[in-house]
Amino acid sequence: MSxxxxxxxxxxxxxxxxxxxxxxRLDLLRTSTEERLREVRAAGSSGTPAARMERDAFATLxxxxxxxxxxxxxxxxFGRLDLxxxxxxxxxxxxxxxxxxxxxxxxWRAPAAEPFYRATAADPLGVVRRRHLTLTGRTVTALEDDVxxxxxxxxxxxxxxxxxxLMAAVTAARTGRMRDVVATLQAEQDAVVxxxxxxxxxxxxxxxxxxxxxxxHRAAYLLYAHRERIARSGVLVVGPNxxxxxxxxxxxxxxxxxxxxxxxxxxxxxxxxxxxxxxDAVAALKGDPRMVELLAAAVRRRQRVPAQPRRLVxxxxxxxxxxxxxxxxxxxxxxxxxxxxxxxxxxVRRVMNDLVRQLASAHGTRSDELDADTRQxxxxxxxxSPDVRREVNLCWMPLTPAGVxxxxxxxxxxxxxxxxxxxxxxxxxxxxxxALLAREKAAPLTTADVPLLDELAELLGEDPTSGAADAARAxxxxxxxxxxxxSVLESGMVDPSGGGALSAEGLAERWATxxxxxxxxxxxxxxxxxxxxxxxxxxxxxxxxxxxxxxxRRCPSRSMTVVGDLAQTSSAAGARDWGQALAPVLGTGTRTxxxxxxxxxxxxxxxxxxxxxxxxxxxxxxRVLEAHGLPEEAPSSIRDAEVPPAAVSAPAPAGSPAxxxxxxxxxxxxxxxxxAGRLAVVAPQPLVAGLxxxxxxxxxxxxxxxxxxxxxxAVTVSDVTGVKGLEFDAVVLCEPxxxxxxxxxxxxxxxxxxxxxxxxxxxxxxxPLPAGxxxxxxxxxxxxxxxx
Length: 788
Ligand SMILES: Nc1ncnc2c1ncn2[C@@H]1O[C@H](COP(=O)(O)OP(=O)(O)OP(=O)(O)O)[C@@H](O)[C@H]1O
Hints:
Binding site for ATP: 205-212
Bound molecules: adenosine-5'-triphosphate
Helix content: 40-55%
Distance between the termini: 50 Å
Number of helices: 33
GO molecular function: 3'-5' DNA helicase activity; ATP binding; DNA binding; hydrolase activity
GO cellular component, one term: cytosol
Number of domains: 6
Keywords: ATP-binding, Helicase, Hydrolase, Nucleotide-binding
Organism: Quadrisphaera setariae
């Protein structure tokens, strides 16, 4: 069933008029918000502090609203539902109503929009026809209809347009930035997006199944649907590295959400931005649960008892720091079960008591006769003594996480001693393992160090002398200020112009839950002990036990969305089983004294359709998956490749000049064949630098980039780790056998590399192709033949 050409033209013109009406409304809201912002700013910095704070608060609010209204420009309206009974509902990025409060546009996250994603012929949810509108700029360029109700039930004269909004979206050339998929979210994805807030939801899905897309849409959905519960505590999205976060950073703003905190694993500790990466084996050790005991032992070993009594000069007198006294003080400080820095006060008090007694008797006074003033002056005398300060500090120093960690890696005796002590509680540490962990004191902190810093921060507590304490204090002060600002607004100061989205009620309600925009993000980022309302983890299969422990601390409510693919695990500390990986989050093994199991469970959802990779490429990747016995089934693709995957055999060993020339030739051919679009050259790590410089010389200036550079480069050269989670129109994969051999999880890496292209895959290899790729090997062509 389909409409005639003229019927379709009429239909399109009708939709255009409706779309124009909604953009007009958007324009009006923007103009009035701009106007209000101008007025607030024009008032300048005059008036009482309360009035200034009030204006600041309004300015933030208007800026926030304006940013949101601007962010939804692209594809503001994308859906229409024709409902039984004749009602029509438009679905778009935000909710809009006209001046008489008639709903013009339904926010995609509202319950009323759900049938747009969920209605099926079997369960039409009251929908007769679902229409996808494709816009270019503000112009309607295509319509596509699904008849959801029984065709016979269609109202007379209803036009049904063909098209392919999903196909158009998945075949579009990639820009290097992820786009939202709100217009074409599929039912299995929508079910994940709208899943209930509480608990741990694991989304297992093969490559290209939209896990990242779904995770981000879910964050936006939760902030909309449960704003009152989580806006104040915030949502944290964790990705593997900065390049990945840059790739996804436009999705949430386009969905109207700007206050989400995005962090890579290396940024989860306030004040640290670790980008250095350890070798696999070292990272695996740093992610090992044995680290918990090792770090605890390292801290305990910094609570020292001198082997011999120490004579200390205090003015003209002498006192003795006795090992027995220090040992007793240490025991009572430890018994307080406080963190190291907090318990130091107990330790010092106990030691000082003994020293005060000695000094009193040196002065000829009995300590049991001391009045408070005398006691205070004796203590002051002791504190002024450099000997006392030094020796007491040596026994129980205030410590910082970074200081302890650097010392642990740099000082052999520290590490060996802590390992020996930890081994009493835990499986022992082998000498070779300790040798791997050793490092120069000046070496930069790595991403795998970050969870260890967090663990140490738990053991050490706040160091009153460190910058972190200042930052936490500043965050608390800011938080107080925000509370004050909120109360000013709540005390009756409302927007006098009223009406529309910024009505008095709306404003008051909003301030009660939100505070000024950015404030949650700012506070959360600078406060290690911040408890997020929800945490979303992408590429979750790569996280070590130690990293999961950090996330468990950041999210005491354990409301989490965890997305990943066990078949793509490449880090040695990563997951092979979700239940095991999540043990630190679920509290697995936690029991009450009477044996009641307190551990939580998680809900598992699966995504099964690959929207990225063409069928022929995915088939190849599935054969690799099977041949190497990787867990999980490959997803099915929704479209065929225009060009099937191919392989060329390189004429000389990898890395040689002739090999490099063959790769450069292959890349040049692909760039030409691709036209517009992005290409990745993926190679084993040792070959990356050579390829990057050869391609830089051979191709046009500025065309070749590493993944760390701006993502819109035409050609990216990277190892597999760098392209994880990303996608490219074409991929030239070099030396797949070496990718497999490079690490115990090499087959997973090959699977990742093979599933990056949206259109073309070309393999260049000097060695025989690995298991699963035999069919491609059958078609191996020598470059000379190819070019001949
Ligand atoms: N419903 C959809 N409509 C249109 N495009 C979609 C849809 N779902 C996913 N995509 C597209 O498919 C591609 C893959 O999505 P995404 O990167 O989220 O997958 P992934 O499961 O995280 O993949 P990987 O595990 O390989 O990192 C993206 O380009 C995304 O925009």
